[in-house]
Amino acid sequence: MRSPRHALLRLALAGGLAAGSVALVLPDGASTAVSEPPLRATPQARCNDASRPETSTQGRVPAVDYASGRAARGYTCNATQVSHHGGAGGFKTFRYVDRAGHVCGYYDSGSIFSADLVTRKEGTGVVVLDMADPRRPRQTANLTTPAMETPHESLFLNQRRGLLAAVAGNIETLPGQLDLYDVRADCRHPRLLSTLPLGGLGHESGFAPDGRTFYTSSTFGQVVTAVDVSDPALPHPIATLGGVNFHGMRLSADGRTLYAANLGNPSGPDSTYSNGGLAVLDVSSIQDRDPLPAFKPVTGLAWSSGSIPQSADPVTIKGHRYLLEVDEFANYGARPNLVTGLGYQPDAPVGAARLIDVDDRRHPHVVSNLRLAVHQPKARLGAQGKDPGASSLVGGYAAHYCSAPRTVDPGLVACSMILSGLRVFDVRDPAHPREVAYFNKPAPGGAGAFSAPAWDLRHRMVWYSDTTSGFYAVRLARSVVPRHYWQ
Asked: Per the record, which residues fall in region Disordered (predicted)?
């Protein structure tokens, strides 16, 4: 993952349900090395008078602010808190409006089951909120079936069919139990449709937009499973992919192209992961339910600033197709070793996020970066390494998830950037994104903004959860949100 020369990725793929896997080379000319835009921080937001802006470098919460009490007041720019709920959070936040018009929020209540039970004021599992009045979230349920109790990063909501899915996703709950809930009739009280051991080992996931296929990735388990959920009461696997180390998977609008955050596989005696990035696969035969459905490699792409690819969400801006890709974590040094990369390493690459042009899915290329000043090499060499939480192996000044309010001309995107909180960017000019707002409520040991945000643009709101303090609904200033969204 260290340079574009890794763009030609070899994927070990298994077609259909065949046992084993075979190595397949990418089609000739499927990907080419491309230049990247300069690795600069995205222009900083200009805050209105009602803001409580950061006191240091863009994205930083310095140790002196914890000592003085300033950090406890939080940092806001063109954003205000509407409500807060609970005491912990996880990796995903969703918003849904059911057939009766009820507005609901969903979020997983913890990052790893049993690791943060004490802080979960809202109880365990996936929390269900009635958001009829976003100023006063009302908890209506906790989903505590095996996968919902510990979904890790697999929680996913299909808006079209109103299906909420997750796979039990950590070492405490192997193998990966798949849970499916219906939220269409009454989103405040999801109805369990099935819970079956169909999800491999669990970790992350993806949903075809039509809601008929749920993809599960076992990440270090080296397997991906496509599950037919056309009848969610009787889901069943229809294709497997072996020998790959995929993270989040997202699908094109027609469900025929899969964009996988590819962690890559170990390279060299020190078990570094240095050949990851983006993997593009043709899953048309799975979408079409062919007799022998299979994953077919199309291309791969890497970038020099990469850390750990997390997910790549398709968006269309001004008629052109892009991926909103985000890398998680930092602190793995010049060679990102998941075993020995302990403590703060100033030379560690911080991938943050980027927009990737996929108009030609065989030749993707990075068009711009979404990153903060704290992610830059020069800043990492300074005093910020001593800030609370900065040396975390699984956090620090880095990103984790981004999301867009809609897939076509979203205008804005929001990213959870761990210690730096929720960051909002204007992407109407994809080549020149700019930061327009942020909201950060650090706990004494630092913030933990890990969750993919949810959106309610009509009311200028973003919802997200912080692992250290719970669920937040945040309202953006009118000057930030394109006028046609809320008028």
From this structure: 33-59
